[in-house]
Inverse folding.
């Protein structure tokens, strides 16, 4: 008898797993905030005996070292990973007892990283689950370009071989349980439909298993997008051994301190929804919605190490944001403020605002002959699927360093759905630009009558 519990890390697009039997269990690729893992084990009434990393993660700070310390579990790390702490090195073919009748077997699956290792849970010698980390994902594989550019093609070829090894060694009905691929930028492509898969399903649909190696590698390399800037800090942090996370509340900030921090060039981040932010916010503050991909985009855009002050409606929203940011190494907010936004500005000062609109509004403005700047902040791969004729393209993660390139005039900024446009609008607003945030799905652009251009037919 065995169980597998999935722990969703939605903001980062990752999953961790708790799996085992009646008495003890293992954890695969735990998040830095380990409380939820411990709580899941407590609900099952099991002891955590093993903590396993499939690889040194490039997209988040692991909680594996701390979880192993707190629980007394053996900490399994691939032998090829160079780390600065004591652990149990794992080589291809190594086995580890989990519980009665349950064994964990390591399979070397290089590709996402040179040392990447998958783990197969076996019950009485029969494979019942494959924890594939950043190797075989749902309809995709993990990116091969996060370690070193000179290794990218070699690792892409290794991904193909690793996927085939898993498909050859495991039966069709074995569940594939990846860490990445649920919105994570560690995935080499968009995830196929569905949240569950098996070796058999992947065998028939995954390009790593249906394409020859040369075709697969060529397609993968052609489709790779920009790497989030903060990824450069995650691997070294995980190799050094992350410190325990500190989730104590930040220092409260009053209106004067908020103003002083802005004047010092620090980042003040408003976590409220984009509608509320547009209606009234502290001049110079940035809008990263707490309900959006907060950790990914804030960590991607902020200069690494820059102090950040958080603003939100409630202390609970600050706590949630703090937890998510700690997962990517933004450990201690400099300060925080909650409550009525009117209390975030000094006496005599007022909140500022900017308008929101739909693509239909943009079409009307253009029909009247008004000259406006249309700024597209989607990624290059998204723009390649079509863009508003005459629009300027600066991906959101490049905008802080390229605001000076935005042409003069009122800027109508859009993305694919509204969240990134809100971030961009706040950056432009803080820089003193006249901005309108287009809060609309991109599919509405055609319905609104805007002319789209497809790059293949441009010119």
């Amino acid at each position: 008898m065995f169980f597998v519990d999935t722990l969703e890390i939605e903001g980062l697009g990752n999953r961790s797993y708790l799996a085992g039997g009646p008495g003890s269990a293992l954890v695969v690729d735990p998040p830095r905030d380990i409380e939820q893992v411990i709580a899941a084990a407590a609900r099952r009434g099991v002891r955590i005996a093993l903590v396993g990393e499939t690889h040194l993660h490039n997209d988040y700070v692991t909680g594996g070292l701390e979880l192993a310390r707190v629980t007394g579990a053996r900490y399994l790390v691939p032998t090829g990973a160079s780390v600065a702490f004591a652990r149990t090195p794992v080589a291809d073919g190594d086995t580890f007892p989990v519980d009665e009748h349950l064994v964990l077997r390591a399979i070397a699956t290089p590709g996402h990283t040179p040392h990447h290792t998958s783990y197969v849970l076996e019950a009485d010698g029969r494979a019942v689950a494959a924890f594939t980390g950043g190797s075989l994902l749902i309809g995709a594989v993990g990116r091969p370009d996060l370690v070193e550019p000179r290794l990218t093609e070699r690792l892409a070829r290794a991904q193909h071989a690793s996927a085939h090894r898993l498909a050859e060694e495991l039966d069709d009905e074995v569940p594939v349980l990846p860490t990445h691929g649920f919105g994570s930028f560690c995935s080499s492509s968009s995830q196929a439909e569905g949240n569950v898969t098996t070796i058999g399903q992947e065998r028939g649909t995954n390009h790593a298993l249906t394409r020859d190696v040369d075709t697969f590698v060529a397609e993968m390399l052609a489709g790779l997008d920009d790497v989030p800037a903060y990824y450069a800090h995650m691997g070294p942090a995980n190799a050094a051994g992350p410190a325990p996370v500190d989730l104590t509340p930040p220092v409260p900030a009053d209106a004067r301190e908020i103003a002083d921090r802005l004047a010092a060039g620090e980042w003040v981040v408003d976590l409220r929804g984009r509608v509320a932010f547009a209606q009234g916010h502290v001049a110079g503050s940035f809008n990263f919605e707490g309900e959006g991909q907060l950790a990914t985009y804030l960590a991607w855009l902020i200069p690494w190490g820059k102090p950040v002050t958080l603003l939100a409606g409630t202390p609970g929203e600050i706590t949630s944001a703090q937890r998510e940011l700690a997962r990517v190494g933004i450990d201690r907010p400099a300060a925080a403020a909650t409550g009525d936004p009117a209390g975030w500005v000094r006496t005599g000062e007022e909140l500022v605002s900017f308008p929101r609109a739909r693509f239909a509004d943009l079409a009307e403005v253009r029909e009247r002959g008004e000259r406006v700047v249309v700024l597209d902040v989607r990624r290059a791969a998204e723009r390649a699927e079509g863009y508003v004729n005459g629009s300027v393209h600066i991906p959101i993660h490049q905008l802080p360093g390229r605001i000076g390139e935005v042409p003069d005039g009122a800027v109508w900024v859009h993305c694919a759905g509204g969240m990134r446009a809100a971030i961009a609008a706040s950056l432009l607003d803080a820089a003193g630009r006249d901005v309108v945030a287009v809060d609309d799905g991109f599919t509405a652009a055609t319905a609104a009558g805007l002319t789209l251009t497809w790059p293949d037919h441009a010119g």
